[in-house]
Amino acid sequence: QVHLVERGGGLVQAGGSLTLSCADSGSSSSLYDMGWFRQAPGNQRELVASIRNSQDLNYADFVKGRFTISRDNVANTIFLQMNTLKPEDTAIYYCAARGWGDLQFVYWGQGTQVTVSS
Question: Is the pLDDT of residue 28 over 70?
Answer without folding.
Answer: no
